[in-house]
Amino acid sequence: MESIPTLESSRMRLFLTLQEESSTIETIEQVVSSDPAMAAKVVRLANSSFYRHTERHVGIQQALLTIGLDMVKCIALSMAVMESFGSDAILMKSLWRHSYTVGLVASLLGSSRFEKECLFTGGLLHDLGRMVLLCKAPEEYISLYERQGHWPDPALEQEALGLDHGCIGEMVAERWHFPPEVVRIIRRHHEPMDRLSALIYLTDQTVSRKEQGREPETFEHEDLLRRHLGEEYKELVNTVQHRYTTNSAIVENLG
């Protein structure tokens, strides 16, 4: 844990700036413009086929308005975290595509600005522990992945490594001073303990199965979904599936 750097980059400062309701488009443009790699990613996404409606190439300010501040926040936080780990492994890229999807889709399920913020950040970082394992123990973790043919479940991680990715993610998120609600999401996204972690669990499981070409028919912890979300969770599954489809083009362009 001590070898994992803190998040103090310009990208993290931009993410925190975006969290402030008083932030103006001029302030955000100034911060984005100071980071060439981020500016390039924002402009590239805004000019992608998903967003473009004219032949005119858009600059930074128009790009920010085109993709929206939530998307800029997604880029800023993900680039800040990726900078800390610096892994280009194929599995890491696959994990980020999944994380982008969960964060973007889950944020749409929030009933307030506070919930949307927590769901967005928690969704984007719910597999933070897996990112740590891919970076710090790649041979051991990839071996577990290959043994199961998909991401190892927490029980297998616990048996093989002594800790599961939720526990590891919790420790890193606390080290990085994320809000307690986000830390709980990261720790409990496989066994929800409240409404927010239940929404991430439902989104994560549904998206994972869609990525594997399977339909999300039943869930291991349906009792917990009912407890924290009520019977509406069944309708939420349909909502997540629809938004998974509509957000897939954005996620591809983020990669």
Question: What's the short version?
Answer:
By secondary structure, this protein is mainly α.
Outline the structure in words.
By secondary structure, the protein is an all-alpha fold. 71% of the residues lie in helices and 0% in strands. The chain is built from 15 helices and no strands. α1 runs antiparallel to α2 and α5 packs antiparallel against α6. It is globular, with a radius of gyration of 18 Å.
Count the strands? Answer: 0
Please, what is the average pLDDT? Answer: 86
* CATH architecture designation of the largest domain: Orthogonal Bundle
Topology pattern, helix = H, strand = E: HHHHHHHHHHHHHHH
Instruction: Give the number of helices.
Output: 15
Provide the helix percentage.
over 70%
CATH homologous superfamily of the largest domain, by name? Hypothetical protein af1432
Report, as a whole number of angstroms, the end-to-end distance.
27 Å
As a whole number of angstroms, the C-alpha radius of gyration is 18 Å
How is the secondary structure organized here?
Layout: H1 10-19, H2 25-33, H3 36-46, H4 60-67, H5 69-85, H6 90-107, H7 113-125, H8 128-136, H9 138-148, H10 154-161, H11 165-175, H12 180-188, H13 195-211, H14 222-229, H15 233-254
Helix pairs in contact: 1-2, 1-5, 2-4, 3-4, 5-6, 6-7, 6-13, 6-15, 7-12, 7-13, 8-9, 8-11, 11-12, 12-13, 13-14, 13-15
